[in-house]
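Researcher: Next entry in the queue.
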Amino acid sequence: MFHNPGAPIGSGETYTDVSLQLRLHIADDEHLPQTAVTYHLLRLSDAPCSIAQGHSFQVPLSPQQFVFSGTHQEQDASNLLIREPSKVVYWGAHTHGWEGGIAVSAKKNGETVEVFTTQHSAEDLYRYDTPHGNRDIMFDTGDVLSIEAIYDASTTSTIRGAMGHLGLFLAPRE
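Model: Structure for this entry, 174 residues:
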């Protein structure tokens, strides 16, 4: 995900003349198992049904951490109803560390199964990373996967445009 945060980290301006090159190297091995996977993106938003609002939320000024877990509306994209026995094969989260983003929590039926803690890069002062990787978490039909984002709300003003995302690949469970 490309971001150009506001000062003091970045200019906040719209990117111009930016390109991305993505190379995929796919093993061509008849002995590798071929499993269909589906991609899902869970995201937190103040207005989950409004494209104009984007996929962000506000963090009010507070002396403590702010936890946002969505609006709990029927169309809330921060929840995923599992429709068949499945397993997570790969997932990763995203939040704005430069704005006080601490972590994204993934929950299965309301119980935390993983916390993705944002880390400030040692190599790049302007980069924050949130872990991602292979997992083997099982879901049954009817389970609900949901997320929440945790932010440090002790900044000098309300944070507008805070993010909490979880991207994941699900495979049918055998």
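Model: Residues 48-52 have pLDDT under 50 and may be disordered.
Researcher: Noted, moving on.
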